[in-house]
Specification:
alpha+beta; FAD/NAD(P)-binding domain; Flavocytochrome C3, Chain A, domain 1; 2 domains; six-stranded mixed beta sheet; 22 strands; 27% helix; globular; FAD-dep_OxRdtase_2_FAD-bd
Length: 498
């Protein structure tokens, strides 16, 4: 009998399994996806972990020597305090996030990254020096303290799976847990394998780490509202909320922002959910440096209200609200240095339109259904409204905005006037949902009276209360690692006293 069973094999589940195993527990990990980890949302991430640190020496202990001269402006990134992390998290969620859980994640973030590094997760600095010799985040217009994994999501999963195998954790893939019942010995899990066999697993403690319900179009439409069945699922096709239902059947309290989700601007050329070759190549997150228009040729958002790290996860919702659930991000030649690598893919599915003049670009987009005349008028009005008295600076909120428009742009405004011009067609891509089960600061699943359900733990995207309305980049993987470690440790304690 496996004394601890972990349901879900992404970042959170693997961290839970490694933590429980380190405490001496026998661990079985059950996962619906393939053995390479590509069935998890973690596989499809950019591999960013937001982390609090008190000095560059702490950062270098994880990523190695930065080797940057002070003249690059590295001092501006010398610290990202716990207070800064908490303030950013609170601000983007309207201060409705569970304060105790957020404090637990933030206060343990550096320790968690150090622990992961000890398991050979290959971390890199999130900082680079640009062509002007100035240090910046690897993503122009990004903000906050983070490190990233070499190889992004696939690199993270490869490292964690190897660590799990080295630790002697038994993994079974292609198996979906259908239900969990109380038994005399703890829990009995009823599982169905891909080939049709039904198997029973007994455990003293269970850790649920099977994600949200974003891959279930009926549930997300019922929870998020009309039109959400049309959103593209960015990552795992296995995250249908089954773990949440199982926890609820065991008495778990539901918690969090059930009408909220992480949703981004996503290329209309994206493939089906869960294609491991796609990873995150269809992200379109450089919108703060251009303008975005709908099928009517109208702007409908302030593209630069904040750093992209704090707006990208809510702009997908704005695109979904537009007619035909699609929009176009427009850039001119001045924007080239600010475009992320995903824009430079030569894949024909990039849904990119290029032209030497605005008139030619508008004509090409008209063939895609865009109102040509209104588009040209929108660009002309935008260009005329740009305040050129303020210097452009992509590394700070520069206040270079527009004046007098229905949707004024707050920062990083430049006239679209230098060819060639490009348009990237986007729709809404949903990453994960915010509603889930309620847990305590030790990752114990709580019932409706706030009491821990003995032996039952949860971590990862199925935890509710962490995010409301919006999301700060990199907090998801960090939360998964922190709460996964806690869940594993506590589950092992249950086993020790069984």
């Amino acid at each position: 009998m496996a004394r601890v069973v972990v349901v879900g094999g992404g970042n959170a589940g693997l961290c839970a399994a490694l933590s429980a195993r380190a405490e001496g527990a026998e661990v079985l990990l059950l996962d619906r996806g393939p053995a390479d980890g590509s069935g998890s949302d973690s596989y499809f991430t950019g591999g960013l972990f937001r982390v609090a640190y008190d000095g560059l020496d702490q950062l270098e202990a994880i990523v190695g020597p930065l080797g940057m001269d002070p003249s690059t402006g590295i001092d501006a990134f010398a610290k990202y305090s716990e207070a800064d992390f908490l303030e950013d998290w609170g601000r983007v969620t309207g201060y409705r996030c569970d304060a105790e859980l957020a404090e637990t994640v933030v206060g343990t973030s550096y320790d968690a990254i150090t622990w992961l590094s000890g398991h050979k997760v290959p971390f890199l600095s999130g900082l680079v020096v640009d062509s002007a010799g100035r240090v910046r985040h690897t993503r122009p217009g990004w903000h906050g303290g983070f490190v990233e994994v070499s190889g992004a999501g696939p690199g993270l999963m490869a490292a964690l799976l190897k660590a799990a195998d080295n630790a002697g954790i038994r993994r079974e893939h292609g198996v979906g847990v259908r239900s969990i019942e109380r038994s005399a010995e703890g829990f009995r899990l009823v599982s169905r394998y891909a080939h049709g066999e039904t198997v029973f697993h007994d455990a003293d403690a269970v850790i649920l780490a099977s994600g949200g319900f974003q891959a279930d179009p009926e549930w997300r439409t019922r929870a998020l509202g009309p039109g959400w069945d049309l959103a593209r699922v960015r990552a795992s096709r296995y995250n249908t909320g089954r773990g949440i239902r199982i926890a609820q059947d065991l008495g778990a309290a539901l918690y969090g922002n059930w009408s909220g989700c992480h949703a981004v601007a996503w290329s209309v050329g994206s493939r089906d959910a869960g294609d491991p070759k796609a990873n995150h190549i269809f992200e379109r997150e450089s919108y703060p440096f251009g303008i975005t228009v709908n099928v009517h040729g109208e702007r409908f958002i302030d593209e630069a209200s904040d750093f992209g790290a704090y707006t990208y996860a809510r702009y997908g919702r704005e695109v979904l609200r537009q007619d035909e659930q699609r929009a176009w991000q427009l850039f001119d030649a001045q924007c080239e240095e600010q475009l992320m690598d995903e824009y430079r893919t030569k894949n024909p599915e990039a849904a990119r339109t290029r032209a030497d003049t605005l008139e030619e670009l508008a004509a090409k987009l008209a063939a895609r259904g865009v109102d040509r005349d209104h588009l040209l008028r929108t660009v002309a009005e935008y260009n005329a409204a740009v305040d050129e008295s303020v210097d452009f600076n992509p590394y700070v909120k520069d206040g270079r905005g527009t004046k007098g428009l229905r949707f004024d742009k707050s920062n990083w405004s430049r006239k679209l006037e230098r060819g060639p011009f490009e348009a990237y067609e986007v729709t809404c891509g949903i990453t994960f949902t915010f509603g889930g089960v309620r847990i305590g600061t030790d990752a114990s699943v709580l019932d409706e009276d706030g009491r821990p359900i003995p032996g039952l733990f949860a971590c990862g995207e199925m935890v509710g209360g962490l995010y409301y309305f919006n999301y700060a980049s990199g907090t998801g993987l960090t939360s998964g690692a922190v709460l996964g470690r806690l869940a594993g440790r506590r589950a092992a304690e249950v086993v020790a006293h069984a």
